[in-house]
Design a protein that fits this description.
This protein is 69% helix and 4% strand. By secondary structure, the chain is mainly alpha-helical. A hairpin with a 2-residue loop joins strand 2 and strand 3. The radius of gyration is 22 Å and the shape is globular.
């Protein structure tokens, strides 16, 4: 019973449909379900909002157009004109992370982005993708990215390994940032929810008030973390395309 009421119980992966392929566990889990729901929700939102294409947009169409313009401007400002072809990927990444974050705010749902394996998989796709783009575009010249310009040769012995390590740490920092923020926020909500029940009717309103404030903050964090994930992906893409240092 104690485990069931643990603040961390909400992050437990549960198998909904057990599947095994060649000794590999490929079961359909609660995390899989909410990733499918997030994709369906994004698709439904964009399809329904743009179905009418009214000259004077309604609320849903305005939200869809603002989302489109927001990411388009982000890509343009941080990557330049060359980044236009990668806009669909950045837009998809942003909307997927945002909807996963927002779905996790609904009671009795599952927060996909609180799982490090999910956020690391997304970060790994970004890291491998931009690295391949840089290699295909620049060839061996891509290696100059790890050699700071205008630095004395003697210092390169120290700086080049540091640059290489910092580059390969990118997927870890990108994934942990999203995972840690979502995990911490939802854990706090669960902890204060327990205080509300434990303190009862007379004193429970104190942590309840904090929950209301924290919930509002969590909605802001849900958007900010999707934004940070997308803009860092744009910056990494810019480095790969232009070898800026």
């Amino acid at each position: 019973m104690a485990a069931e009421h643990s603040p961390l119980a909400q992050f437990e992966i549960k198998r909904l449909v057990e599947m095994n392929v060649g000794g590999l566990d490929v079961s359909f889990t609660n995390a899989s379900l909410f990733m499918v729901i997030a994709i369906a929700a994004v698709t439904l939102f964009l399809t329904l909002s743009m179905r009418g294409r009214a000259m004077v947009p309604g609320r849903m169409q305005s939200m869809a157009e603002l989302s489109y313009e927001f990411i388009a401007n982000m890509v343009k400002d941080n990557v330049g004109s060359e980044g236009r072809k990668y806009f669909p990927f950045i837009f998809t990444l942003f909307m997927f992370v945002l909807f996963c974050n927002l779905l996790g705010m609904i009671p009795y749902t599952f927060t996909v982005t609180s799982q490090i394996i999910v956020t690391f998989a997304l970060a790994a796709v970004v890291f491998i993708g931009v690295t391949l783009i840089g290699i295909f575009k620049h060839g061996f010249k891509f290696l100059t990215f790890f050699v700071p310009s205008g630095v004395p040769v003697a210092l390169l012995i120290i700086l080049v390994p540091i640059e290489i390590i910092s580059y390969f740490v990118r997927p870890i920092s990108l994934s942990v940032r999203l995972f840690a923020n979502m995990l911490a926020g939802h854990t706090l909500l669960k902890v204060f929810g327990g205080f509300v029940v434990g303190l009862g009717l007379y004193l429970g309103w104190l942590p309840l008030g904090f929950i209301v404030v924290l919930t509002g903050l969590e909605f802001l964090v849900a958007f900010l973390q999707a934004y940070v994930f997308a803009i860092l992906s744009c910056l990494y893409l810019n480095d790969a395309l232009h070898l800026h240092h």
